Structure formats: C-alpha cells, structure tokens
Amino acid sequence: MKTKDFDNTKRDFLKKCFAFSAGIISLPGPAVITEMIREEQNIYKKVALFQEETARGIMCRICPNECVLKEGEISKCNNRRVKNSKLYTMAFGNPCSANIDPVEKKPLYHFFPGSRAYSIATAGCNLVCLNCQNWTISQTSPDKTKNYDLMPERVVEESVKNNCRSIAYTYSEPVTFYEYTYETAVLARKAGIKNIVKSNGYINAEPLKKLCSVIDAANIDLKAFNESTYLKLTGGKLQPVLDALKVYREMGVWLEITHLIVPTWSDKMEEIRKMCRWLSDNGFKNTPLHFSRFYPVHKLEQLPPTPVEILRNASKIAAEEGLKYVYIGNVPGNEMADTKCPSCSSTLVVRQGYRIVQNNITGGKCNKCGKVVDGVWS
Ligand code: SF4
User: Fold this and answer.
1) pLDDT tens digit string along 96-130?
2) Which CATH number covers residue 297?
3) Is the same domain home to 374 and 252?
4) Which residues does residue 199 pair with via DSSP β-bridges, in sequence order?
5) What are the pLDDT digits (tens) for 196-236?
6) Is 312 domain-assigned?
7) Phi, psi torsion values for 139, nearest 5 degrees
8) pLDDT at 25 over 90
9) 246 CA distance to ligand 1 centroid (A)?
10) pLDDT score of 150 more than 70
C-alpha cells in the first residue's frame, strides 16, 4: 500500500470512529458479521431445484414440509436459504461425513452383499426425530459443521480409487442435500458406480421420480404406523412416506425397509401387524424388512433398549403377514441377520455383524433348490 493510500484509509477509519462515537453510524452487529463470514465462505452453493415463487415467498417443493421462505430465511432442514429472491442449497460439495462402509451397514442385505459403499452426508434433515442417532449432524446446518471439500467429480473419483461398488447418500438426509445427491449420482452412473440412498422417505413425488432415475437401491425408514405417533416422534407425516415407498418400487429401485422399534413409541404389536399387512397388501412381500433395535439416544435417552423378545415377536408377525425376508438388526450374534431361502428355508447368506461369512447364492438363485432370491446379487 502506498503512503498516500494508507493515509486516506487512516483518515477514513478515524472519520468513521468519530461518526460512530457521535452516534451517526453504527458498527455491524453480530448478525451482520455472521452474514459477512457466511458470504466469505460462499455458503450459497447452488441454486436449488424444485423452487417456486409464491406471494408469501419462495417455496421449496422437494419435501412435504414445503417451506416458504422470505429473503435471508433458513429452511426447516437447515440447509436452504433465500438470497436475492432465489432459493439456494448450502449443502453441495461440502459433506461433514465421508466414510467407506460395508453396504450391510445401510442396511442393504440383498444388494451386492459384502461390497463397499463410499458414504457421504452433509448437515441437515427435514425431520426432527426424538431418537435420531446422528442428531449432531442432522439437526444443524453446513455452516456449523467441519466439512470436506468433495465436489461430485471427486466423490466419484474417490469411490473408484477405493474400490467401492456404490456411493451411499446417508447418515443425515439425502432428501435435503438433493442437488448434491442427484449430480453425484449422474456422474457415478457414467463411471459404472451404483447409487444408494438411506432415507426417511419424506419427499414429494416429482423430485423423487427424478432422483429414482439415477438411484439403484434405497433403504427407507418406516418409523411408525400411526399418524399421531409419526408426528410426535419425527415432526412429519406417515402418508407421504407410504406414497414414496410405492414410487421407489414403481421406478424399479431395489428397496429395503427399516422399522426401528422404539419402546413405548413404535412397539405396539397391533400397529406392527397393521404395518406388515399394509406392506403385504401393497406389493412389498418381496421387500426385505429390517426390525432394528433401539438404543437410548438424543431426546429418548431415558428409555431402555428394545427387548429382543419384542423384535422376535414383530418378526413372527411379519412372516405371518406373508413378508418373505424379515431381519433383526442391531443385535449382535443373532441368527435373524442371516438370509434364508423363501422356498426351501436353507440358509443362504450368513452374516457376522457387517461381515459376510457365507454366501450360498449363485446367479441370484438358491444353491440348494435353484429358486430365484429377490435382490441384486452380482
Ligand atoms: S427439503 Fe428442506 S427446504 Fe425443502 S421443503 Fe423440505 S424441509 Fe423445506
């Protein structure tokens, strides 16, 4: 800086100090400073898809929350914001989690067993589940988490380099980092990598159909089978999730469903029977159903873990209602983590935790009786 420039700057600064002490101007408050920092970090990553101008503000049509936001407001999912009358996603190329997981961890038991999934998540979620295991990243926004710099091209490169069969959009909620998921999935497809979503299924039909065009497999949480419980437990509604399940199936995405049994919330056998009957009556008999054990966490720390007996009773009910592949998860060393042939009942896939110990499926068929086993095996 030249001496003259420096003098001018100093003069400006002194003028401002005088004006400030005289009450003529005000220094930026904390909100403005935060805004400046945000601008610097370029958090407005990308213009969001499925936005619509309304008289009340900009509406996001991605999920049933259908947030309507005014200038500067942040969405329910904490990662969308309006700037200059446009909705932006703040969750693009900046995941706060990136790991290589066994595909069984999603859980997906009938989709390339034993393969690796490059797993990413950004901060944010469209539900507020009391029992969220990942609440430290789901209930915050991308400008508050420590993030990786991983644009879609790099995610695909890393997946190839690490010998991953698939990329999983997981941990928090891919519905809310929709643009990042979609663009990465398009590139992954071109590179011969499969795409997986682990999701709450809380998404509107139109964005879901677009997403399904590049997704190969999904594990969807069906958190309860009662509207009132759904609302109290998650902040969302049940019906849109049931609708989404049908879309996934109709679009040919390989689907598995998880029902976490939370004591006093989603452990009533009559509701579990209703849920299994609905699945059976609506074409999901061949869709694997995972009953998962709850462990105390987040806002339900006071509850005990789900008794194993409850999980076993639920599995019996599912089998009675005609579901062919029923599993119990989160219970180490239980035989209900193995896959049985629905025709001859022989054990097909033996699992120890997330490890495959034995696989008796060849070309998608049972080695013993030769019947087709539903899934994507090779
Ligand atoms: S995805 Fe986020 S911004 Fe869009 S409607 Fe759902 S909660 Fe609102």
Assistant:
1) 999 999 999 999 999 999 999 999 999 999 999 99
2) 3.20.20.70
3) no
4) 220
5) 999 999 999 999 999 999 999 999 999 999 999 999 999 99
6) yes
7) -105, 35
8) no
9) 21
10) yes
Q: Are residues 271 and 373 in the same domain?
A: no
- Residue 9, in any domain of the structure: no
What residue owns the CA closest to ligand 1's atom 8?
Answer: 67
Residue 376 sits in which domain range?
A: 338-378
Which of 51, 52, 80 to probe ligand 1 with, by most ligand atoms within 8 A of CB?
Answer: 80
**What pLDDT is recorded for position 41?**
53
| Residue 40: pLDDT band with limits 50, 70, 90 | very low
Do 246 and 368 fall within a single domain? no
CA distance to 108, 113, 378, per residue, from 375 (Å): 10, 10, 9
In a domain, 87, yes or no: no
The answer to whether the CB of 177 falls within 8 A of the CB of 92 is yes
pLDDT on residue 378: 83
Q: Kindly state whether residues 355 and 248 are assigned to the same domain.
A: no
246 with 375, same domain: the answer is: no
Both 226 and 271 in a single domain?
A: yes
Q: What is the pLDDT of residues 337-372, one digit of tens each?
A: 999 999 999 999 999 999 999 999 999 999 999 999
Structure tokens at 41: 């970090």
Task: Please indicate, yes or no, if residue 148 is contained in any of the structural domains.
Answer: yes
- CA–CA gap between residue 313 and residue 317 (Å, rounded): 6
Q: How far is the CA of 46 from the centre of ligand 1 (A)?
A: 15
Would the CA dihedral through 297, 301, 303, 308 be positive or negative? positive
Pocket (CB within 6 angstroms of ligand 1): 60, 62-63, 65-67, 75-77, 80, 126, 175-176
Q: How distant, in Å, are the alpha carbons of 47, 85, 159, 356 from that of 126?
A: 18, 22, 27, 34
Same domain, 224 and 359: no
User: Looking at 222-334, which runs of residues are DSSP E strands?
Assistant: 254-261, 289-293, 326-329
Q: Are residues 273 and 346 in the same domain?
A: no
For the chain, the domain total comes to: 2
- Name the residue with the closest Cα to ligand 1, atom 2: 77
Atom of ligand 1 nearest to the CA of 59: 5
pLDDT digits (tens, 9 = 90+) for 265-290: 999 999 999 999 999 999 999 999 99
Report the pLDDT value the prediction gives residue 45, as an integer from 0 to 100.
83
150 CA distance to ligand 1 centroid (A)?
A: 23
Distance 66 CA to ligand 1 centre (A): 6
Residue nearest to atom 5 of ligand 1 (CA): 66
